[in-house]
Amino acid sequence: MKRLAVAGLASVTQGRPGRQPEVRPAGERQAHLQRTAKRVARARLLWAGGVLFAARYLPIPRKIAVVLAARHLVQAAAALRRPAGLVARFGWSADAAHSASMLVWAAVSRRWRAAALTNAAVAAAWARAARPKHRRVGTPPETTTHS
Hints:
The chain has 147 residues and is mainly α. The protein is 69% helix and 0% strand. The chain starts with a helix and ends in a 17-residue tail after the last helix.
């Protein structure tokens, strides 16, 4: 019983229960991060196009939707141009800041609350998708054995 509790605790502290963290060599990890950045940037391009297309039907002023779509387009273009660059590595922070600002806006504006909460959720999803997974390079996963 004690062994199960300790093993369960060890797996929870590593992230997901029951899974060992994946360890990649430095070059392979960098290539994986660049591929992920490109995938997220392509999806962001599609999202920005959809926002531009639907701007007249959204429950927010059209100019705001166009500015938001433009931000997504610029961010995606920068990440595609340099998938290992600053925007690709830290662009998720713009999404996190946008999500936080929408939560504040939802708290102070009753009129725009539903749109702001929806936008906060979408921005949080983009932040999660764009944030690279930070793992140690070249170190094996911890294995603990207790007697």
